[in-house]
Amino acid sequence: MSESSPANLDIATIKKDFPLLGQDVRGGRIVYLDSANTSQKPSSVLDAMDDFYRTINANVGRGTYDIAERASAAMEGARAKVARFIGASKASEVVFTKNATESMNLVAQSWGRANLSAGDAVVLTHMEHHANIVPWHMLAAEIGIELRWISITADGQLDLTDLDRLVDGAKLVSFTAMSNVLGTLTPVRQITDAAHATGATVLVDASQLVPHVATSVKDLDVDLMAFTGHKMLGPTGIGVLWGREEILDAMPPFLGGGAMITTVTTEGFTTAELPFKFEAGTPPVAEAVGLGAAVDYLNSVGMEAIRRHEVEITAYALRSLTERFGDTITIHGPAEPGARGGVLSFEVADMHPHDVTQVLDENAICCRAGHHCAKPLMKELGVPASTRASLYLYNDESDVDALGDALVQAIDLFAL
Amino acid sequence: MTGLEDLYREIILDHYRSPRNRGELEPPAHRAEGFNPLCGDEIVVYLDIRDDVVADVAIGGQGCSISQASASMMTAAIKGKTVAETRNIIRSFKALMSVHENELGGGDGVDDDSTEVEAEEVDLGDLEALRGVVKFPVRIKCATLSWNTVTQALDDISA
Predict the structure, then answer these.
(1) What's the domain count of chain A?
(2) pTM of the predicted model, to two decimals?
């Protein structure tokens, strides 16, 4: 980690590392404000994957020739990089999946079926992404678990007044570390401690956290953590489930097939060691290599510097949008930039988000409209849909200004 | 912003700001719901059919200007029409939206001739203003949401 990161990142230079951001769309420079949805990729990630296919592409763990060994080494090297990136003590605790959603389903199906039965309680929150809701509904329908919900406060925080009562007797507490709608940073350690005090296991959805904030599973003391490559400058098709070795060891396999076995006969099978027990079939090798390159890039910029930049640019966005639009704009989530990530969901002047994003698109600005895969949260907020702008290390004040200018155009068009 | 003039014609904005036939209808009027998960449009269509005629129709729910305007225009177009005429109007509108039964990723896959035969003779009136939507493929689903929902209601009633 670079202690000597410059106080201010040179965003203009960083933007140049991302080929897509150099593109003109609709006659103007593209302004990408949807990184909470998926992030853009630096050349180093693209080159790493391209290089892999051009020089050492072979299946992993199965070959006894030069490029097969090098492919395996590349994959395991990426795994080690990811493990170090999240402060894990062993690379074998890092399971590669397809995405964070698959990681959550893996826990629900594998850990859930082995540890939960009818009447057992799982604690979730109203702030969750569907990936941390639907698998539990599915499990509830299969085996009759009870779901409990931590609610949210008026300023977009988790309401912890009832926390001890909610986690009392629960088997699992599963929650997001950063909301993909509100940007709220939740008190992970506090909730984890409360869960552990009552003997519950903790699963954290860190899809928005890991790309934006230096994360240590050791410091957070969580038991299982899911995140995804494509939100952290890596390719699509690769996600991570990190778990404590003893927990993963005790879990039954998720998908069955090749690579996750030690022996197979006509009578049965035995599983492979960690992490391979949970990696059935040919894994996304090039994608793992790409994710490793993404980790390298993030480390080269420095997660502390990235976080500092995001707090600044979020503060700028909150300030300037509020100044320009006053009462006509409602921006959800905590008002304090330090308490949140750069995810900004908002409504402006009674305009429907889809109409807003249409006008933004006309100006080559990319934002998301809708429920952001968090329908229960939207219901709590009392809005069926919102517009969401999300910031990352390649966004600067000119991007925020462009957003503001386009919102003025939208208001002109739809003024009642 | 010249591109958006095709999408947001004055008629559309008018229907959006002053939607016709908003409200609810009591049973025995039929109720059907539709959702556009991409952008959060939710629509409720109330349909009162009497003696094979659309005696009354009302729209509830919320959505973008295109879905709301289209829904409003739809109610004006089908109120007082027979069920057969209504289905004809629906087919014509979907053809206007370039929605052919066999084009949407394999849906029904049949009905190659239906769009050509029926489309011509129906006067779509205000609905012509939505012609520009086809230039914005993502909005086609917004425009057709209420139409698909009313089709669902018609299918439910005749079932």
Answers:
(1) 2
(2) 0.90
